[in-house]
Amino acid sequence: MNQVVSTHNLSKQYNGKYCVRDLNLSVAKGEIFGFLGPNGAGKSTTLKMILGLTRPTKGFVTVFEKGFEENRGFILSQTGSLIESPSYYGHLTGLENMRVVQKLREVPDKNVMQALRIVRLEKQKDKKVSQYSLGMKQRLGIAMALMSFPKVLILDEPTNGLDPAGIGEIRELIKSLPQLHGMTVLLSSHLLSEIEQIATSVGIINEGEMLFQGSMSELKSKSQPTIKIKTRNNKLAQELLRINGFSSIQSGESLVFEDLLDDEVIKVNQSLVTSNIDVLRIEEHKKSLENIFLDLTGKEQSL
Is 40 within the bounds of a domain? Predict the structure, then answer.
């Protein structure tokens, strides 16, 4: 079995408007799949539909290659999740909160302590959760999701509101789960930098539609470098190079070339110099992942 979570034309409509439309998401076994998009893109709604918390307007979900509706009990018994923010009883201790979930999930005592150790809360387990920091509450939520040691872990914005140290802790924790515990992780984020450091595969969603899905290396391959060349006579240089088989576009004060190899850059430079066209500057420009995201969405909006 390779595909652990799949959605098939998954759609959700509220008040006549689609917030998720014809989404075909595919998460393979052992992956950390980063579900990336701006706030309001449809990430949380999609995760809720995968977990059966929201009913799709159309389309369907399969988990472990089984239809969700027909196999709800089995699928949920093998799935852990933290959606939007952790739920807890503030007047109870961390351990007491874990015991509540333990009864619901029917897991042994050893799982409780192991989950607390994994998120490094074993020393704060007897403190009331109302006294926990935001990062500790987030780690407690992840411990609750981990307690049954599920095959699939679904985390919605797991680093939301954390300071840099807390983000680093959660990042390292998530990265360790597939190898140490055989889990497949599906996590959403609006932080491109986080997804880049954690995920093996990524899906980019905007306005409810999937714009890109593939490995992180595939996404990075979209950042093919361009070469910018500035001369004293760009018009003449462009025409000369076109005759020699090198096409370019004029951008500002430079000629821009796509997909030029190093040897081709040498030839372009030699052609210009031997034709007595002064070359003032040669620069390589590589798109950042953020620029790739902006290209995909077609709009300048921050993640």
Answer: yes
| Rounded Cα gap, residues 219 and 226, in angstroms | 16
- Cα separation, 121 vs 118, in Å, equals 8
15: DSSP letter: T
Q: Is residue 271 a part of any domain in this protein?
A: yes
Sign of the torsion formed by the C-alpha atoms of 186, 190, 196 and 201: positive
Residue 36 falls inside a structural domain: yes
Task: Specify whether the CB–CB gap between 88 and 145 falls below 8 A.
Answer: no
How many domains does the chain divide into? 2
Beta strand 58-63 with 184-189 is unpaired
- Collapse the DSSP code of 257 into the 3-class scheme (helix H, G, I; strand E, B; otherwise coil) and give the result: strand
CA distance 167 to 169: 5
Q: What global pTM score does this model have?
A: 0.77
Residue 251 and residue 209 in one domain: no
What is the sign, positive or negative, of the torsion defined by CA atoms of 55, 20, 33, 8? positive
Residues 185 and 251 both lie in one domain? no
**Other CB atoms within 10 A of residue 100 CB:** 14
Give the end of a domain, one of 190, 206, 221. Answer: 221
**What six digits make up the tokens of 80?**
């852990």
Number of H helices, E strands in the chain: 11, 15
In tens, the pLDDT along 147-201 reads 999 999 999 988 877 788 878 888 888 999 999 889 999 999 887 788 888 999 9
Structural domain for 210, as ranges: 3-78+150-221
Q: What is the pLDDT of residues 241-252, one digit of tens each?
A: 999 999 999 989
Give me the phi and psi of 214, to 5 degrees please. 170, -170
Same domain for 208 and 172, yes or no, is yes
